[in-house]
């Protein structure tokens, strides 16, 4: 089973680089533009992109979204992401810690991230399928303590599991299980999708069991149904052909943000492909933006300088958007629809 998990993680890293396996629909940010303010009445030096998340400071409101852990390549990959996050002051989410839970040898591919990023907001990650019937909350808590994690992401991925060769499709009782972990787990819980999105109805259901932070993880970036389709063996041709019908299945991130009314903290990930998408996500109401795809190839080169440079472009673009719209503080940008125009 451990070898199967490691191969799956390796497959995912490879296939996630294939643009043909991304959505052909956009996340929706291209349907918005900022209204230029020629009289900003602020100095560029006054712009402050800093914020806080889970009680810790960030230099700018960005999360490196969960990508990997548990494969041989993951050690250098997460080391690069950790070093980059520490240097630019953003948050970092790790891939599913299931592999570390099931095999001691995979622990270091996660722990290296905290070693390289001693001060950042660091999030562990586990699938809903692993917590519905799991009695291993104490084991997860101990690993999160070793990791010095600031929170635990629970990811929802029913259709990914349905098309995954090794998928677990027993999702009955998921909402109640999330409520139990909210009440009993020692760290804050963040609930996210993996790229098909959280609809407004699902967000409201999550709030009824106490969820305080959600990550939309909407359609527009990598499509994990399409990625799993490529992993299906030929003897599952019917399922493989069916997966093509879901190439654009999901809730585009910007559409969810536009219509979402919630008291929860909101992370907007899924299809943020250009640096200005981060600023648009914040103006549409997100507290943080999350990106994975733009950092995947630089991180796989095990060169943190490449990751740092990419992240600096995202931060600088956010700063310039704030100057160009006359906003000096992040809290005045978040949810400010007045500076946006729908195309």
Quick structural summary:
42% of the residues lie in helices and 14% in strands.
User: What is the gyration radius calculated from CA atoms?
Assistant: 19 Å
Low-confidence stretches: none
Task: Identify the CATH class.
Answer: Alpha Beta
Q: Characterize the largest beta sheet: strand count, sense, and whether it forms a barrel.
A: 8 strands, parallel, barrel
CATH level-two architecture = Alpha-Beta Barrel
Helix share bin: 40-55%
Which series of helices and strands comes N to C? HEEEEHEHHEHEHHEHEHHHEHEHHHE
Could you tell me the CATH topology label: TIM Barrel
Number of strands: 12
CATH superfamily: Aldolase class I
Which class do the helix and strand fractions yield?
alpha/beta
Which shape, going by the Cα principal axes? globular
Explain what this protein looks like in three dimensions.
This protein has 343 residues and is an alpha/beta fold. The chain has one domain: TIM Barrel, CATH 3.20.20. 42% of the residues lie in helices and 14% in strands. The chain contains 15 helices and twelve strands. The strands form three sheets. An eight-stranded parallel beta barrel has the order 4-5-6-7-8-9-10-11, surrounded by five helices. A two-stranded antiparallel sheet has the order 1-12. Strand 4 (62-64), helix 2 and strand 5 form a beta-alpha-beta unit. The termini are far apart.
